[in-house]
Task: structure prediction
Amino acid sequence: MAIYKGFRFPIEFDEAFGQGLVMVGEVSPDTEYQSREDRGRPARQRVDEVTGKRQWKVTVTDPDEVKAKRASFEITLLADVQPVPTTSEVLPGMRPIELEGLTAEPKVAGQGEFKYQSYLFRATGFKAAAAGGASKSGRASGSAESTPKAA
Result:
């Protein structure tokens, strides 16, 4: 049995992001590219070809990433309505989050001879905040692309 290109591996949030994630900014619709001729027309939101759900994007930072250029990336959220984070901001525009329904799709990133293994992460939403505002690992609760952790 072969694994086809674009396969999405289900993964637990704590396995992918040991120290959690910090959401930077807000959740926004993932819109299709508009050419010059399309300007002035309403932007169309992307729809996931596998699930049929609308795509939303959010910028996150992984505090566990050692390379600064790879620490911040976008994650795609798949939902019919815009997902709302369940945690409060710790600094203006920044909130710790935890995702549910997380999948990882392997891909090659970089250019020329500087290519590396990366992942496109998708999630179905944010996990509900635990009572008292922190999850079992001590961080607040709360859903692109990232570099893998050493396994």
The radius of gyration is 16 Å.
